[in-house]
Every structure is written in structure tokens, then in C-alpha cells.
Design a protein that fits this description.
Number of domains: 2
Strand content: over 45%
CATH superfamily of the largest domain: RimM
Strand order of the largest sheet: 1-2-5-4-3-6
Number of strands: 12
Distance between the termini: 27 Å
CATH architecture of the largest domain: Beta Barrel
Radius of gyration: 19 Å
Order of helices and strands: EEHEEEHEHEEEEEE
Shape: elongated
Amino acid sequence: MDGPETGKRVTLAAVAGAHGVKGEVRLKLFTDSIDGLACHDKVYLDGRLVALKSVKDSGKTAIARFDGVSDRSAAEALRGSLVEIDRSALPPLEEGEYYHADLIGLTCFSESDDTIGSVVGVENFGAGDLLDIELVSGKRALIPFRDPISRMEGARIVLDPEFLA
């Protein structure tokens, strides 16, 4: 792949609601662990760059405090807001590694270079990554993201159309 898209943001969490009365919020994490969020000093919260003052594990969710959010009303008003970072703030990848966010939007081709569709999502239910492909016809299909079924070549996905439902 040619590299991450400049200016692209990656969502790390979403605000699930307020926690307590001092402005803390409950977060639904989209990272493997709380560490993926905790290592960032500044994040985009509802599109605005703010300081992440603290984040801690709370069992099924995380609890965070953001600069400028000091009471329950302000925290509750953030329900549904996304917590994002610039793609460029993510750690560099080793050969063969990828971020799900880099796959979304890639065009999918057959071995004979026919356009099949594009990646609209990436799922993982425990057995490996699945690409959610929106086909040219408008239908959607989930296929395993592993060779020989599908693979990344440069900034595109090459896949075997036999695996499309």
C-alpha cells in the first residue's frame, strides 16, 4: 500500500454516556485494549481537538475524563460522540500488518482485473478478519481476508469472486 491517507482519522471509541457527576464519560472501545487510547495526550472528541486527562478500565467499558468536560450535563451531552485520532498518530506497522481503517474504501478487483466492489467494513468474530464488501451490484458480502481468497496488492484488494455470496 502506498501509505495512510493524509488527514484521515481513526475512531478509537464512542461515548456511551456520563459516569458520575464530575464530567467523566463511559466509553465503548474499538481498540484491543485501553492502552490503544491511553497512549494519546490529545484526541478529537466530537470533531474538536481536546486533551485526554485520564482513562481507566472499568470492566466492560472504559471511563475517561476530557479537558473542558466538568459536570454530568456536559458529559451526557457527549453521548454518541466519537473519540478519534489522526491516522498518522498510530504506531508504524511491520511488513504484512495493516490497520482496519486503511482497508476501508479500497477497491476490490478479480484476478482478471474486473472491478468487484469496495471494502466498506472489517469484522472479526474471532476466527480472523472478514472484509465487508459492497459489490458493484449494491449487494454486500463478507469474505475472509486471507490468501488465496483475498489479499492486498498496493492500494487495492484482489479477491476470488467464487467466495462471494
